[in-house]
From TrEMBL:
InterPro entries associated with the record: FAD-bd_FR_type (IPR017927), FNR_nucleotide-bd (IPR039261), Riboflavin_synthase-like_b-brl (IPR017938), SIP_FAD-bd (IPR013113), SIP_fam (IPR039374), SIP_rossman_dom (IPR007037)
Family classification: Belongs to the SIP oxidoreductase family.
Domain of life per record: Bacteria
Protein name: Siderophore-interacting protein
């Protein structure tokens, strides 16, 4: 609230954007789905509830991941049971060394979390995909990245990919014990918060910069839906310039969907 004589409080709404521009600047690319049998090479506990697992295999020579929020299927099999599949972000990959890195948030007791908790070098894992990529150009005037711990690998990858001088606003709902430095050449305004209410409050306090920007958010379904609604209805951000994904949903298993 402005003090008497200071004039009206500054608006938190973004300037109107051209929806055709926002739509045309992103690109969807389809990839041939291929199953790959990979071997665990290294396992690292990077924070108390995150494990970084490096996989390797000759079949990675033609692996493609064109976007930071791609997801691959991890396929877990048990004798006599139907295989279970879970979606995960390719955190980093190198076709020359035939290595793929995946980071696991140990926040549940599902098959992926259980596998990652006991993974050791020499074990095998079947990976499929990604089936496609949603490519968001890096040359927007600014980027807004919002998420919880399940989105942290994608956010970390995006920040590494952004070029020097690009402006990025980042709001992450991650427990203090799992916060870590995020490498980037971009000019980043990073805010860590603790809990869904704190995340929504942080979004409410945001003043979106001028110019053409793109917002990306991922995490729990109801929280991501609320954040998307706030950006469009309260901040006036172009709904065509938002990528919102539910990486999980309370009370449900294996939930992954794009929110419109």
């Amino acid at each position: 609230m402005a003090a008497p004589g200071d004039g009206p409080a500054p608006s938190h709404r973004a300037p109107a954007a051209d929806p055709l521009s926002a739509v045309s600047r992103v690109k969807r690319v389809r990839h041939e789905i291929k199953r790959r049998e990979l071997t665990v090479m290294r396992v690292e506990s990077i924070t108390p509830h995150f494990r970084r697992i490096t996989l390797s295999g000759e079949s990675l020579n033609d692996f493609i991941s064109a976007s930071f929020d791609d997801h691959i299927k991890l396929i877990f099999s048990a004798d006599g049971e139907t295989p279970v599949m879970r979606d995960y972000t390719p955190r980093r990959y190198d076709t020359s060394s035939r290595e793929l890195v995946i980071e696991f948030a140990q926040h549940g007791d599902g098959p992926a979390a259980h596998w990652a908790a006991q993974a050791q070098p020499g074990q095998s894992l079947t990976v499929a995909g990604p089936r496609g990529s949603f490519i968001i150009p890096t040359d927007y005037d600014w980027h807004l990245l919002i998420g919880d711990e399940t989105a942290l690998p994608a956010v970390a990858r995006r920040l590494e990919e952004l070029p020097a001088g690009v402006r990025a606003l980042v709001v992450l709902n991650v427990p203090a014990s799992d916060r870590r430095p995020l490498e980037t050449h971009a000019h980043v305004d990073l805010r860590w918060v603790d809990g869904d209410e704190a995340l929504r409050s942080a979004i409410g306090d945001l003043t979106l910069p001028p110019g053409e920007g793109y917002a990306w958010c991922a995490g729990e379904a109801s929280t991501v839906a609320a954040v998307r609604r706030m950006l469009v209805e309260d901040k006036g951000h172009d709904r065509h310039a938002i990528r919102a994904s539910a990486y999980w949903k309370r009370g449900a298993s294996n939930h992954h969907e794009a929110l419109e």
